[in-house]
UniProtKB/TrEMBL annotation:
Classification of source organism: Eukaryota, Viridiplantae, Streptophyta, Embryophyta, Tracheophyta
Protein name: Major facilitator superfamily (MFS) profile domain-containing protein
Residues that span the membrane, as ranges: 21-41, 84-103, 115-134, 203-225, 288-310, 322-346, 353-375, 387-407, 428-448, 454-475
Subcellular location per the Swiss-Prot or TrEMBL entry: Membrane
Coiled-coil ranges per UniProt: none
Keyword set, alphabetical order: Membrane, Sugar transport, Symport, Transmembrane, Transmembrane helix, Transport
Amino acid sequence: MAVGFAGMKSSGGDFYINGRVTPFVILSCMTAAMGGVIFGYDIGISGGVTSMEPFLSKFFPKVRDRMRAGDSGVSNYCKFDSQLLTSFTSSLYVAGLVASFFASTVTRAFGRKPSILMGGAAFLAGAALGGAALNIYMLIIGRLLLGVGVGFANQSVPLYLSEMPPPRYRGAINNGFQFSIGIGALSANLINYGTEKIPAGYGWRISLAMAAVPAFLLTLGAFFLPETPNSLIQQEGNQHEALKMLQKVRGTEDVQAEFDDLIKANEVAKTVNHPFRNIIRRRYRPQLVMAIAIPFFQQVTGINVIAFYAPLLFRTIGLGESASLMSAVVTGLVGTGSTFMSMVLVDRLGRRTLFMVGGIQMLVSQLAIGAIMAAQLGDYGGLSTGYAYLVLILISVYVAGFGWSWGPLGWLVPSEIFPLEIRSSAQSITVAVSFVFTFAVAQTFLSMLCHFKWGIFLFFGGWVAAMTGFVYLLLPETGNTPIEVMDRVWMEHWFWKSVLVAN
């Protein structure tokens, strides 16, 4: 059910004007969104370096030997099956999972800004260690530090991007987080493509170390970030400062009605001493379900098949090393462009529409990829050039569907539906669930590819069908509704209203 407002009503019934998107808000949100760039860069860089022979020779020689084996007894689908190799990729998400719960406490007690700052600093340290790695232990420790950085950034940045802009622009600005992830992944793919050609074989070091650039920009920018009005109100004695900040970010002094809603939300938040215990109460049941279901579904779309292992997947179907890295660049461009389209359309068409269109698009393309690989790619040899590029086109169609639906909306919707009293804790649950299943997919995908073969695309396609049905039945439209009065969308939904009013 879509809920629209000609103006935004306060909880007292008066309309308030939410102002405009000021240059101050744009600059602040662009700085915070660098947290998405570091996440995207790491996603893109790991898949690229794990397809480079010098990197494999130094850290994973058994994988390199299987890759070189060609047709001599090693299945196309099993060349890269290595638990040590997947541990390199997935160790980041274990660290991120643990860090997200510490980040929740920091974000709630001290504000969004300190959490963003800590994320940037940890990621900067991890990038330095990864680029200088001499052995697998240094490599994994560097990944763990990167995970701490991503855990703090993913917990705080989506909240920041939901609290700063006016409600009618919240979707576009919050989707900037996923757009930044796309920019980071695309940058990583381009760097991988360039460094792979360095004849001395140390290109992978440059790829890993370059993660320090966005991390440095985020860390430096965090020193100058303003706190959100919501966060300032949460901190005792800062109501006057919060009012001034709200007037500044809205570009108008006429913000009293919105400010009153923030004050009332904060008064409710003060009564909650144990937010993790409080979130399981019936009144928060819809938000808790979404905090778990949306990040779970986002990870079982199969996007990590592309995000982490695109170059390896393209090598599986017979493309060379350079062609595989360039194909990853192509899919990165498609993903970034489609996410930008989501930024433009999300507040006009609504969240549900983009979820449905993107879900159908991903499902059809995954079924087609599975069918082609089943019919044309055996255990040995490769696809013909024509079929290989057809798979690349279908993967691009899939990435586009994710880019304007589950990619950005998987971060946007959870960050905008939580009331202030449970917002930080609920966001940490969302991030933790995301990390748990990102880890699970990253750790098991290469083994699943070896065993399921072409059926891996049907496996993820089944999940896409299920999640599309979930959105159609259970997710109300959350666009154009002020965060502090978001509870009304659940009371107007055909299913959730019966849950909320039940004895």
